[in-house]
Amino acid sequence: MLYVVISFLFLAIVLYFLLGGADFGAGIIELFTSEDNKSRTRKTSYQAIGPVWEANHMWLVIAVVIMFVGFPVIYSDMCTYLHIPLLIMLLGITARGTAFAFRNYDAIKGKKTQNFYNRIFVYSSFVTPLFLGIIAGSAISRQIDLHATDFLSAYIYGWFNLFSVSVGLFTVALSGYLAAIYLIGEADDDKDVLRFIRKAKLMNILAVIFGGFVFITADLEKVRLAYFIFGNPVSLVAVITASISLVILWVLINKGKRKIIRVFAAYQVTMILLAVGYMHFPYFIMIKDGQNLSLLTLHAPTKTIDTLGWGLFIGSFIILPSLFYLYYSFQKKDEII
């Protein structure tokens, strides 16, 4: 049952990167859109994420619950030594959700208040995935020091380093890329389609640049990232197939296949996560002194894990069909009307 719980944990993390990342990416796309086109971008983004923007955070909640109940020691250490980036990320989620709701449902909709909500929305959409990536980078950077004796070593240097920040920037670029790909299929105007294609190309280029920066900073800070990715056949195959799917995606875009490209974009990000995470398993956090926090040893008692596993397994039969129907119903709303 332990492996069932771990599988649900990684599934929740991957889905949050895919769905929540694209959600944040809509704000990133808007941030880098000219004033003349911002209103159309907002309209398309709202059509895409408006009905389900809160549901995407369900995967984060599930991951947090699994960590809290199933792996309390790892959860405690993570919330202690990474509490600053975690707090900033949670504040970003809250600010972004609040601004999104107010700017769409504000009864007055004055120009000043709308500008205020728009700024909060786009900046928090940038900050949140940035710190999500920083947290992910910190987990494998070996910079977290459980034996630190001063504030900076314990609570700052573990996440505020070149490698973690570069992973954060890479996450921002991936979020923007996912959003642009998704929005290509939502746009109902040819000019908007071309504009989102240009945004997707830009974010694709930025992802490659920041991805290279991740490898450079990993080498500078002695993180064996290249070994983790290219030192085993599973990660290597994941990288190769992700690269091939990227080529297929752009071929499909040129042929006007606007819906299926989402599958290839999601596949690419999933393969990136697999390539990085495969060699780290079962370690969830890699510590400075070489003592890693393992999911296979630092778990809750067997009875707790069994109960959690059955709860997740049974709950998935209720949650997943309901969630899929939510997506389906809003995709078909125009046909119904």
From TrEMBL:
GO terms for cellular component: cytochrome complex; plasma membrane. It is found in: Cell membrane. The chain crosses the membrane at residues 6-32, 53-75, 81-99, 120-140, 160-182, 202-220, 226-252, 264-287, 307-328. Pfam families: Cyt_bd_oxida_II. InterPro entries: Cyt-d_oxidase_su2. GO terms for biological process: aerobic electron transport chain. Keywords: Cell membrane, Membrane, Transmembrane, Transmembrane helix. The keyword Transmembrane applies. It is a multi-pass membrane protein. The keyword Transmembrane helix applies. Its main location: membrane. GO terms for molecular function: electron transfer activity; oxidoreductase activity, acting on diphenols and related substances as donors, oxygen as acceptor. It comes from the Bacteria. Belongs to the cytochrome ubiquinol oxidase subunit 2 family. This is Cytochrome bd-I ubiquinol oxidase subunit 2 apoprotein.
